[in-house]
Design brief:
The complex is a heterodimer of chains A (556) and B (104).
Chain A: H1 3-15, H2 25-28, H3 39-62, H4 66-71, H5 78-89, H6 92-105, H7 110-134, H8 139-143, H9 149-183, H10 187-235, H11 240-250, H12 267-281, H13 285-288, H14 297-328, H15 349-398, H16 405-429, H17 436-459, H18 465-485, H19 487-491, H20 507-524, H21 528-535, H22 537-546
Chain B: H1 3-11, H2 13-46, H3 48-52, H4 63-100
The chains are: A mainly alpha (556), B mainly alpha (104).
Chain lengths: 556, 104
């Protein structure tokens, strides 16, 4: 396999998620050379940090109750929320990772973009409005609506926190390496800096600050991406076909980059990643949480429409940038070392193209945006984790009596500090590990635990607590177990020659089996409790359709 | 929400009309997306030859890339149509229903 492919496969294994995985690739594997200080990038980054800390200060003054803290008081406008949701997906992983993946492996990498675009409309049609009508702060509110609170909150919180922690590890390691590359900052300092800023945003500014940070970054990234894609198209007189033709001439694999087969082998591998992408997204706690920041179901619907449109546009840019980079970066000695490897690894391709098209100034801008994007994503994740700990576990499970707003916010802040600390420790611990599998784990758990329980709770009258808990546990054990037995851990981490489970993604088995377990164990559950839960479905159904009794409706 | 209120709402013909029309709408649109995505995924899995073939002889544009871009565009268009329709029809119906039930 060519050097190039090796690097890119590293990214791919990790990348998987639109969102997070500020993946890896060349950047994560092995040592990264520290780059000389990039002054433009640093100045632009400092401007961004200054502006966002200003916003945090402003947001902190508006954040008084737990509704404000978790959900910005339900006062976010649909276009703002939609842009922030899109921002969660237009991350460094998408911009750098998917571009790098298309650059190395061509067509197969498109599944990463198409999967996201298949998920979002379905979230709009089936989930968004019901979720907003039923819940208040986290998706677990919805799942536990008519079920026995404690067991269902605990199993969902385990699913939710696993996703958050695994994502945070992948993010922190990726962030450390990327910052080292872009800014010439030491790995440890980079990880501490990211964690420190994230704690500031979340613990002081809550959801309001987290949304604005994400929103601003999303707009900057859209501007940058549009510029690069426009320049690529301009070079080919705005013919996408000419971009592709030129790419096949530049790429060593020739026409194979326009067809499936360079990365994913066999139906199970392809379908597993396809399921993980589409359904994992529907189970991401920090994304689902954003639906509670708008005032009602109508605004939730509008947010998803805005988000879907922006993401679709962005993925089309990414496809142009990925194929365009083949022409301008692949055979350009400026962007390769003496051995012919891409400088900085596969993740840097998009930035090399940025430099080619826009010079040092544009490179500085996009580097700063890439750093900003990491901050915005880890802030959203940490807020979701803190909400799960303070709201679902502390206030609704551990405490028996009612909890005051001030107390819940206090617990959330403590949880934020703890999560920030954990992410620094794990970030440093995993510096030299291959963390690609961690990222695939996060989405696989979301698809195999959170998603089945959530969708069944909304649509299937017959689901009982027992069915939901057993189903969630089956999804959790299978997704983690198969990943440990798969190539990501069994071979790459533990050093065995052959994986016991041959695929990176467990979802082909873990997700359907979780559904079957929910179904079977709900049917077998003949307890009185089960009867009560089934009887309460009508009330939940009416509320999910009409919004009667909806919480936190616009106070601003 | 009380038991009687739930029953009153379930019995209201407007509630049935709302849930049925929205249910069908959501189902059909979800199917369109799922079918589009499945064509892409199953095409990759079982029909690599077709996915690699150019639209016209000698072109670099393959069916695979066309389908990928189409799924992205269909996703955007369907979201737009659903949102537009729901804002104009389902929300109006819902407001009428809430009036009937005494919620403003």
């Amino acid at each position: 396999m060519s050097k190039l492919n090796k690097g890119v496969i590293g990214i791919l294994a990790g990348l998987s998620l639109p969102n997070m995985t500020l993946a890896a690739g060349g950047a994560i594997e092995g040592a990264v050379e520290k780059q000389p200080l990039n002054i433009t990038a640093i100045i632009m980054f400092l401007i961004f940090v200054g502006a966002t800390l200003g916003i945090t200060w402003w947001a902190a003054r508006q954040t008084k109750t737990k509704d404000d803290f978790y959900a910005a008081g339900g006062g976010i406008k649909p276009w703002q929320n939609g842009t922030a949701i899109a921002g969660d997906f237009m991350s460094a992983a998408t911009f750098l990772g998917i571009t790098g993946a298309i650059y190395g492996l061509g067509f197969d990498a498109l599944v990463l973009a198409v999967g996201v675009m298949a998920a979002w409309p379905v979230i709009l049609f089936l989930i968004a409005e019901r979720l907003r009508n039923l819940g208040s702060f986290t998706f677990i509110d919805v799942v536990s609506y008519r079920l026995e609170k404690k067991p269902i909150r605990i199993i969902s919180a385990i699913g939710s926190l696993s996703v958050v922690i695994f994502y945070l590890i992948a993010q922190m390691v990726g962030a450390g390496k990327l910052i080292q590359l872009l800014f010439g900052l030491d790995y440890v300092y980079a990880v501490i800096l990211v964690s420190f800023l994230m704690i500031c945003y979340v613990s002081f500014g809550g959801m309001l600050a987290t949304t604005w940070v994400q929103l601003i970054k999303a707009i900057l990234l859209l501007i940058g991406g549009t510029f690069i894609a426009f320049m690529v198209m301009k070079n080919f007189n705005f013919s996408f076909e000419a971009v592709l033709t030129s790419a096949t001439e530049a790429h060593p694999k020739g026409n194979a980059i326009l067809a499936p087969g360079l990365w994913l082998q066999g139906p199970v591998a392809i379908i597993s990643i396809a399921l993980t992408m589409m359904f994992g997204i529907m189970g991401l706690p920090h994304i689902l949480m954003r639906f509670f920041t708008v005032k009602d179901a109508k605004d939730a619907r509008k947010s998803v429409f805005v988000a879907t449109t922006l993401m679709g546009y962005f993925y089309i840019l990414i496809i142009i940038i990925g194929y365009g980079a083949m022409t301008f970066v692949m055979n350009n000695p400026d962007y390769h070392d003496a051995a012919g490897k891409v400088l900085g690894g596969g993740n840097m391709v998009a930035l090399h193209l940025t430099h080619y098209m826009g010079g040092n100034l544009m490179l500085g801008f996009m580097s700063a945006v890439a750093f900003a994007t990491i901050l915005a994503v880890v802030a959203g994740l940490t807020l979701a984790g803190a909400a799960t700990i303070a709201h679902d576990l502390y206030a609704k499970t551990y405490k028996t009596g009612p909890t005051s707003s001030a107390e819940e916010i206090k617990v959330s802040r403590i949880a934020t500090f703890v999560l920030g600390g954990i992410s620094v420790v794990l970030g440093i611990a995993f510096e030299h590990q291959n963390v690609a599998f961690v990222a695939s784990l996060a989405l696989a758990i979301a698809a195999s635990v959170n998603f089945p329980v959530l969708i069944m709770s909304m649509y299937w009258r017959g689901m009982t607590t027992k069915g939901a808990v057993v189903g969630g546990a089956v999804g959790l054990v299978l997704s983690i177990g198969l990943i440990i037995l798969g190539p990501g851990v069994w071979v790459a981490v533990m050093g065995n020659a052959e994986p016991i489970y041959p695929h990176v993604y467990p979802t082909f088995y873990s997700m359907p089996l979780a559904f079957i377990a929910i179904w079977v164990f709900s049917l077998l559950d003949k307890s009185q409790q089960a009867e009560k839960e089934i009887a309460r479905f009508d009330e939940q159904y009416v509320r999910s359709e009409t919004g009667i009794g909806i919480s936190g409706a616009s106070k601003h | 929400m009380s038991q009687s209120e739930t029953e009153k709402c379930l019995a209201n013909p407007k509630f049935k009309q709302l849930t049925q029309s929205r249910g069908w709408f959501s189902l059909i649109f979800s199917l369109i997306i799922t079918v589009g995505y499945s064509v892409f995924v199953l095409g990759m899995s079982y029909a690599a030859g077709f996915m690699s073939s150019p639209l016209t002889e000698g072109s670099s544009m393959t069916y695979g890339i066309l389908i990928a871009v189409l799924v992205i565009i269909i996703g955007m268009v369907c979201s737009g149509i659903y949102t537009w329709w729901a804002n104009r029809h389902f929300d109006v119906l819902k407001v009428e229903l809430l009036k009937d039930l005494g919620h403003e």
